[in-house]
Amino acid sequence: MSVELGKAASSERMATGFPDGDGSMRYGWTMTPSPLTDLVKLVIKPVNVLPVIFVPGIMGSNLKSKVRNVPVWRLNATLGQPFGLLWNNAPRTAGARQVLLHPDKTLVDDAGAVPTFPVGSIGGPAGYKARGWGEVGETSYQAFLLWLERTLNHPGKAYDKSWKETLNPILADQSRPWGAHRPFAPCTASEIEKVANWFYPVYACGYNWLEDNALSARRLKSRIERIIRQHQQGFGRCKQVLLVTHSMGGLVARACSQLEGMAEKIAGIVHGVMPAIGAPVAYRRCKVGMRDEDYAASLVIGQTGLEVTAVFAQAPGALELLPTQQYDSSWLRVKDLAGNDLLPPHPDPYDGIYAVRDRWWGLIKEEWLAPEGGEALGWKDAVQYISRAKDFHVSIADKYHAFTYGFHAADPKQKSFEHVIWQLKKGISPEGEAQLPNPSDVMQISPQQVRMDGTNPEYVGGENVVQVVRSGMGPSVVQYDTSHYELHASRQDGGGDGTVPVSSGRAPATAANVRQWFALKGFAHEPAYKNEMAQFVTLYSIVKLTAQARTPPGNLIWPPN
After folding, report:
1. What is the pLDDT of residue 14?
2. Strands 202-204, 420-426: parallel, antiparallel or unpaired by DSSP?
3. Which domain holds residue 482?
4. What's the confidence (pLDDT) of residue 237?
5. What is the arithmetic mean of pLDDT over 45-52?
6. Tens digit of each residue's pLDDT (9 = 90 or more) over 343-354
7. Residues 96-114: what's their mean pLDDT?
8. Cis peptide bond upstream of 457, omega within 30
9. Of 302, 104, 313, whose CA–CA distance to 211 is shortest?
10. Edge to edge, what strands does the sheet with 556-558 contain?
11. How much of the chain is in helix, strand and coil states, percent to nearest 5?
12. Residue 9's pLDDT is what?
């Protein structure tokens, strides 16, 4: 095609750009036969880009060793499950876990598995890698990211009536759908129309979940700034991003939105199953592990309190999942034989529970900081990390981005720990010791005075007894524990998603900056975004957030008039 300046245009052609994985724009026209020399006006429509950045939960980012540059935590799928991670972690001792999963020795691994086929605006593996998808767990998040990219960046969606019709029933007027906390405002036709004229390239931003979430927030800030710059090249128009978070990723995003300049660069945040004020289950796992909670998961995370504590106590990010000062101050309870409370409320859980050194119900048994084969962590170091967790909690308390949406699970079938309750039960009395100690005296004893091996139950007094019993069938070995008391960590006492209890999940619902919050059912914590209702809520929130996003105006025409 040739262009002759000065002649009236006999035709006009418009092209809408398409963002590549690296942020550059692609345009295309069908060329006319070379004998035609009439002037053709090429109209390039700038692409309004509102990148969506997904921020995963704890353990949802792939990690590798800083020194050896090999993966130490990679959630690739084998038959749909992270069997490789299970195979590697299950046989590791507490000491080996402590050495391997140290915040100073690990960093984000971007070489996780990514799709091989094109979806939305991504043409292949290089595009997915450029978008950060290799940083997050394939098993946990890839299906959701593919759905999000496919839905938001449907080719030709601005002109595709069927795409809009697909949205309409999802976003239709309902009185209070999805357990909406505030009066529900359905998406309007004009809001849906606006979505059709934006591109939403979907990114993922992993982070080192062992580190302080304040550091992860700064990493997210850098990623946001880089993505915006990428999409300002050529004819791209990008001023802001949207954040979609899972679990602890919500804490990272909230901290990021408080950093200088970030409130304006984030158009809004959608939070999913965020432990807004912490989760008591984090304490329980440090005491008795996960074996009686979820055996399969315990093989990866830790079967005993020793295995969990060895990593948890040196990881500020993990400690920041503990209940905050905003949580019910009676979340930790100890009950005597009659069910009476022996432990008073602790308005300050940091000094009153987490940093308590000489009581068995404190967070950390000191000996577990130095497991065999590990690298010993000092008590002062552990307390310093607890103090850092407190500082982080204070820094984000009641602070949410000005445009916040989200959801939590309020499912009574997904049993969760609203409280951790230690129940004293009478044990098999040690031989020659029939009189029980006073329960109030039991509250004063140290971790070293309890037979504490990091499993449920623990024992006060007595011993492990092995006897050979002879019968007509021959000798057999009988093993049992004697004790004054058995200390049983009770099972889940509330609803939620199996990890985050309802009280913590719904805590943001009344915050000033939260525009809407939903209470959903039918899913567990880790696969929350695989649930259809959670996806609908996310889509609704993105449409609403787009309506108030900053829109750059205008078309570019070549040649200029």
Report:
1. 65
2. unpaired
3. 420-489
4. 85
5. 86
6. 999 999 999 999
7. 96
8. yes
9. 104
10. 11-16, 40-45, 556-558
11. 35, 20, 45
12. 44
Instruction: Answer yes or no: do 450 and 410 share one domain.
Output: no
User: Hey, how many other C-beta atoms are within 10 angstroms of the C-beta on 337?
Assistant: 12
Q: How many whole angstroms separate alpha carbon 405 and alpha carbon 266? A: 13
Region 46-63 average pLDDT? 94
380 and 410 co-located in one domain? no
- Got the DSSP string for 227-263? HHHHTTSTTEE---EEEEEETTHHHHHHHHHTSTTHH
Contact between residue 128 and residue 114 where contact means Cβ atoms under 8 Å apart: yes
Rounded to 10 degrees, what is the CA torsion of 308, 310, 316, 317? -40
Structure confidence by residue, pLDDT tens digits, 363-412: 999 999 999 999 999 999 999 999 999 999 999 999 999 999 999 999 99
Q: For strand 40-45 and strand 556-558, is the pairing parallel, antiparallel, or unpaired? A: antiparallel
Alpha carbons 82 and 74: distance in angstroms, whole number: 8
> Has residue 84 got a pLDDT over 90?
no
Q: How far apart are CA 523 and CA 5, in angstroms?
A: 63
- Whether the CB-CB separation of 352 and 346 falls below 8 Å is answered with yes
The verdict on 290 and 365 lying in the same domain is yes
Residue 84 domain-assigned (yes or no): no
Is there a single domain that holds both residue 58 and residue 193?
Answer: yes
Q: Please, which residues have CB within 8 angstroms of residue 357's CB and are 6 or more apart in sequence?
A: 364, 366, 379
Looking at the structure of the chain, the number of domains it has is 4
Q: How far is CA 163 from the centre of its chain?
A: 30
Both 439 and 413 in a single domain? no
Find, among 326, 335, 341, 323, the residue nearest to 280 by Cα. Answer: 323
Cα–Cα dist 303/297, whole Å: 8
**pTM of the predicted model as reported, rounded to 2 decimal places:** 0.91
Does residue 433 belong to any structural domain of this protein?
yes
- Residues 291 and 267 both lie in one domain: no
Q: Do 115 and 187 fall into the same domain?
A: yes
**E strand or H helix that includes residue 55:** strand 52-55
Average pLDDT along the chain? 89
**Looking at the structure, do residues 119 and 247 belong to the same domain, yes or no?**
yes
Section 50-55 average pLDDT? 97
Tokens of 222: 């850098």
* Residue 4: predicted pLDDT: 37
